[in-house]
Design goal:
The protein is α+β, with helices and mostly antiparallel strands. It folds into three domains: about 20-70 and about 85-125 and about 130-145 and about 155-165, no CATH class; about 170-275, Phosphorylase Kinase, domain 1; about 275-425, Orthogonal Bundle (Transferase(Phosphotransferase), domain 1). It has eleven helices and 14 strands. It has helices spanning about 1-5, 65-70, 75-85, 90-100, 145, 220-235, 280-285, 295-310, 360-380, 390-400, 410-425; strands at about 20-25, 40-50, 50-60, 115-120, 135-140, 155-165, 180-185, 190-195, 200-205, 205-210, 245-250, 265-275, 325, 330-335. It has a six-stranded mixed sheet. Helix 2 (about 65-70) packs antiparallel against helix 3 and helix 9 (about 360-380) runs antiparallel to helix 10. It is elongated. InterPro entries: Kinase-like_dom_sf (IPR011009), Prot_kinase_dom (IPR000719), Ser/Thr_Kinases-Pseudokinases (IPR051681). GO terms for molecular function: ATP binding; protein serine/threonine kinase activity. It comes from Aspergillus aculeatus (strain ATCC 16872 / CBS 172.66 / WB 5094). This is Protein kinase domain-containing protein.
Amino acid sequence: MAEESVAEESIATKSTPRIELMKYSELRDYSCLGTPEPIRRSQAIIYYIDNDRWWITVTLLGPVAKLLENVAMQQQQQQQQQQQQQASKRERREFFQSFVQQLNYESLPLLANTVTEIILGEDETDESTASPGLEFEVKVATTTNMTKTKGDAISTFLRCRIQEDPRRVVYPSCDEFPSFRRFKYEELSRGEDITDYVFWVSNGGVQYVLKTVNRTIYYPDDTEVIRKELENLEYFAEMPNIAQAAGVVVSKNPYQTSTTGEEQLVMVGILLKAYPGGTLQQVLTEHRIADYCWENWAVQIGTALECFHKAKKTHMDLKPSNIVLDVEGNAVLIDVSGIGGHTREWCAPGICEKPLHLDFSSEERQYNDIWAYGKLLSEIASQAGDGPYVKTLHQVADTLMVGDIGTQTSLSSALSQLKGAENQA
């Protein structure tokens, strides 16, 4: 993670302020909005002064020409407007990075141990949006490396708004889930990547799976998904066929302001027990179902799903890649937040059309889980050959994969039928 890779430095007291440029971003689909340049661009920086390091995001709303107008540079306004409208992303980034280095951050009420967002300009495309943050003035010295013209630097003030950056990575407090064992991030040995935020790791010779809070593309809701997954992992502790947590991973708060004070720990990830058999998706793709006691999977997965529903919870993303196999070949349900999103091909009719899964009623969510369970049975049966039990799998799947909630067989009835057929097999 970028925040965790920043080297710790010894900063002398009363040191000269310096800026470290971090990530630049801009609204990518601005052309679809009919604007010739991004209506929003942001530059993340770390501002070092004395013994402190401050995380800051400088955000510009609207065109650069408006910004130049406000810093008394009318003579360059038209020229820069034309250049920005024709500029590449690299050129826009370099220009904006040059600008943010001219701001005087020392006079601003920066927020400690988090990310301060300094907003310049207005979003003229959305009149309904209220301007966030508290208003302040920031001093700016426009120098030649920003304007690319000769002349003396001009000092002026810009109106800005300051708030806690809502797009920052939110790391949960270590105290939120006290029942979980804590592992230090620095003591984990990194293995292969599973996704951009899920990795194989080891500690003391034991292999685990680490799911991190931060990721390549982070959305503010991602942290709430992590919290919900921890809540469900805590609830389903020791329950068979449902993923089990080994603990939480903690590290120093990447946004900690003081470099000399006591280290503040935050939660940076979940440590899950490893299941070495891979995913059911891999088994199906490689046609290796005959290598396992696959006859047990239907009841194991269904029983795990029934545990969710009895607890008034749902999974909402049941699919082969969210089923893993333990060392004995038993099926284990993973990704148990229930709010992490859904996969269109594994959604019941009528469910995919809704934009937000959180809008579904409890009845709809259970219907979707059971429908996906039916499809899962059908996928297993399609590779299991012939026989009475396979026939039962197909029959049960057909009664679950219906287009109407009212005609769908209940999960308990389906499990009773499967258990009866399993005993006769």
